[in-house]
């Protein structure tokens, strides 16, 4: 394997791990402190806005420029359908409320004694992998990683880890389980970035566009299913304004990176 390819893959792994480490940071904060639930929801709303901006102005825009409308549209729909199908399976096994903080009795994670630990862990992995693959791909489209994409993933992962870890703690799960899940997903994020970088090195523009759009579709489906409900459940009428603020910040960052 050429040295340049190895170096690119290792760089992708570093940035993917960095983005995934924000999940651990959020979990640490949730486990060590008892934050007001409206603050948790507000941070979740801001993270949702950041990721929506990344999907619209980075992922989909890049996919369209690389491969045109057809690969982008097909990939986007495929990503949303694939995520939804996998999420349905995981939800039926107890992972439905894996990103919820646990304050709403109707949207709590399954109790530690309920046997849904694996479904919650797999569901969290399902939510994080598409973002990391995009980070790995972004290194193939220029001289360096897309810092805007990394920033969007990092900023959105903090509230994800924060809310979900709070829900795990409320459900009675141990510190070993909580940090084992998020530490493992951080490592998996690095690995996913490496795989994305290696698998698509030298791929045709239409293939790159399709894979980028698949990730975009999966991320948007994840947002609507897991992050936005938690934000609106606690932040109520302010969640839209907070999400719009996160969107605007990410949009400005993406334009400054042009």
From TrEMBL:
<keyword id="KW-1133">Transmembrane helix</keyword>
<feature type="transmembrane region" description="Helical">
    <location>
        <begin position="69"/>
        <end position="90"/>
    </location>
</feature>
<keyword id="KW-0472">Membrane</keyword>
<feature type="transmembrane region" description="Helical">
    <location>
        <begin position="238"/>
        <end position="257"/>
    </location>
</feature>
<protein>
    <recommendedName>
        <fullName>ZIP family zinc transporter</fullName>
    </recommendedName>
</protein>
<feature type="transmembrane region" description="Helical">
    <location>
        <begin position="176"/>
        <end position="200"/>
    </location>
</feature>
<feature type="transmembrane region" description="Helical">
    <location>
        <begin position="135"/>
        <end position="155"/>
    </location>
</feature>
<keyword id="KW-0812">Transmembrane</keyword>
<feature type="transmembrane region" description="Helical">
    <location>
        <begin position="39"/>
        <end position="57"/>
    </location>
</feature>
<feature type="transmembrane region" description="Helical">
    <location>
        <begin position="111"/>
        <end position="129"/>
    </location>
</feature>
<feature type="transmembrane region" description="Helical">
    <location>
        <begin position="206"/>
        <end position="226"/>
    </location>
</feature>
<feature type="transmembrane region" description="Helical">
    <location>
        <begin position="12"/>
        <end position="32"/>
    </location>
</feature>
């Amino acid at each position: 394997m050429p040295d340049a390819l190895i170096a690119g893959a290792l760089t992708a792994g570093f940035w993917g791990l960095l983005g995934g480490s924000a999940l651990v940071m959020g979990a640490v904060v949730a486990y060590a402190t008892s934050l007001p639930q409206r603050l948790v929801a507000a941070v979740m709303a801001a993270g949702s806005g950041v990721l929506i901006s990344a999907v619209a102005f980075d992922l989909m825009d890049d996919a369209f420029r690389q491969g045109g409308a057809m690969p982008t549209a097909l990939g986007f729909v495929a990503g949303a359908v694939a995520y939804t199908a996998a999420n349905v399976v995981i939800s039926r096994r107890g992972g439905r409320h894996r990103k919820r903080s646990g304050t709403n009795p109707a949207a709590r994670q399954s109790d530690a004694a309920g046997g849904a630990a694996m479904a919650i862990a797999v569901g969290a992995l399902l939510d994080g992998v598409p973002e990391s693959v995009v980070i790995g791909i972004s290194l193939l489209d220029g001289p360096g990683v897309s810092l805007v994409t990394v920033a969007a993933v990092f900023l959105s992962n903090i509230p994800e880890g924060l809310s979900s870890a709070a829900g795990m703690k409320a459900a009675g799960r141990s510190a070993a389980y909580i940090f084992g899940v998020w530490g493992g997903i951080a490592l998996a994020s690095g690995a996913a970035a490496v795989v994305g970088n290696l698998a698509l090195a030298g791929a045709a523009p239409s293939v790159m566009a399709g894979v980028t759009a698949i990730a975009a579709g999966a991320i948007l489906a994840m947002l609507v299913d897991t992050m936005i409900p938690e934000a609106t459940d606690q932040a109520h009428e302010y969640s839209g304004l907070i999400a719009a603020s996160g969107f605007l910040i990410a949009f400005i960052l993406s334009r400054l990176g042009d």
